[in-house]
């Protein structure tokens, strides 16, 4: 990286991290050296790029433009280098992946041995958390996120659309009977996720439009895997994402219910990366691999 691009990278890092101290640790510099570097950029350009409040760095209008253009240039450099090296060697390097707990257990965890066998020159560090982390601050190469993405500077690629299914175990249905129409659910033990009120309002098609049925039961959790385990054990009826229940349905430990009237509410799953990094061979290899795994799971 030449001196101009190195300066751009340093300035972008300061803004992304919010302080000279945090960025300096990432770049292997002292905060004083990094502050002088940014001042040197401002002196060369003849404008102020940032102002400092008591709590954080704030960009000027010129600073906003400089950061945006710097990100584009740095992404182009990384993409060019990645495309050149991709033609001459297999993907390699260390891959830091961020993923939510349920997705890690149901899809990514079981698939990783195959990925590592296919790409022996790639090492993987899997960060499993249900909080949405800052990819830049935590130096993550790629994250898998479900649901609709808000405004972001990240590069996102939709890898699939998931949908929700209503399921119960044959054991539960043998003991309590199968719901034939949505109102029958009011007489059943329905297992619900916590934290989101809408997940206790199951939607169905009716002649009048969409009707949301308020269901309840003896067990609720903020962990989809625990709800899955409870449903497989025969505790009650559950409504979860298809990638969560797919294996149980294939194995016959869960049965899908009310498919003709249930509104499955599809939602996207994306791979997201920092600009430029999406073209890195190791990231491209992982993205294509996980898409194929989702296709095979359906």
Q: Could you list some keywords that capture this structure?
A:
about 300 residues; alpha/beta; D-Maltodextrin-Binding Protein, domain 2; 5-stranded mixed beta sheet; 14 strands
Could you walk me through the main structural features you see in this protein, from its secondary elements to its overall organization?
This protein is of the alpha/beta class and about 300 residues long. It has three domains: about 5-85, Arc Repressor Mutant, subunit A (Orthogonal Bundle), CATH 1.10.10; about 90-160 and about 270-295, D-Maltodextrin-Binding Protein, domain 2 (3-Layer(aba) Sandwich); about 165-255, Periplasmic binding protein-like II (D-Maltodextrin-Binding Protein, domain 2). It is about 45% helix and about 25% strand. It has nine helices and 14 strands. It has helices spanning about 5-15, 20-25, 30-45, 60-90, 100-120, 170-175, 225-230, 240-250, 280-295; strands at about 50, 55-60, 95-100, 120-130, 140-145, 155-160, 165-170, 190-195, 200-205, 210-215, 220, 235-240, 255, 265-275. It has a five-stranded mixed sheet with strand order 4-3-5-14-6, covered by helices on one side. The longest helix has 28 residues, at about 60-90. The relative contact order is 0.15. The mean pLDDT is about 85.
């Amino acid at each position: 990286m030449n001196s101009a691009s190195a300066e751009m990278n340093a300035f972008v890092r300061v803004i992304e991290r919010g302080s000279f101290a945090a960025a300096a640790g990432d770049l292997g510099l002292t905060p004083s050296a990094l502050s002088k570097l940014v001042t040197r950029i401002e002196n060369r350009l003849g404008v102020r790029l940032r102002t400092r409040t008591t709590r954080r760095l704030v960009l000027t209008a010129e600073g906003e433009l400089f950061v945006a253009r710097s990100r584009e240039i740095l992404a182009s450099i990384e993409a060019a280098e990645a495309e050149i090296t991709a033609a001459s060697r297999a993907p390699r390097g260390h891959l830091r992946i961020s993923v939510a707990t349920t997705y890690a257990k149901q899809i990514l965890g079981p698939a990783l041995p195959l990925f590592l066998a296919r790409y022996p020159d790639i090492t993987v560090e899997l960060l499993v958390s249900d909080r949405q982390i800052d990819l830049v601050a935590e130096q993550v190469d790629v994250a898998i996120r479900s649901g609709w993405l808000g405004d972001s500077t990240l590069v996102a690629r939709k890898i699939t659309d998931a949908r929700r299914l209503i399921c119960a175990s044959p054991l539960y249905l043998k003991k309590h009977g199968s719901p034939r129409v949505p109102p029958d659910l009011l007489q059943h033990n329905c297992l619900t996720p916590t934290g989101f009120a809408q997940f206790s309002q199951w939607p169905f098609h009716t002649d009048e439009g969409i009707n949301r049925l308020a269901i309840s039961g003896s067990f609720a959790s903020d962990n989809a895997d625990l709800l899955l385990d409870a449903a497989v054990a025969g505790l009650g009826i559950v409504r979860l994402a298809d990638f969560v229940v797919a294996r149980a349905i294939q194995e016959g430990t869960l049965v899908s219910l009310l498919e003709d009237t249930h509104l499955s509410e599809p939602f996207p799953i994306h791979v997201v990366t920092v600009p430029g990094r999406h073209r890195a061979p190791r990231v491209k290899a992982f993205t294509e691999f996980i898409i194929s795994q989702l296709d095979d799971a359906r």
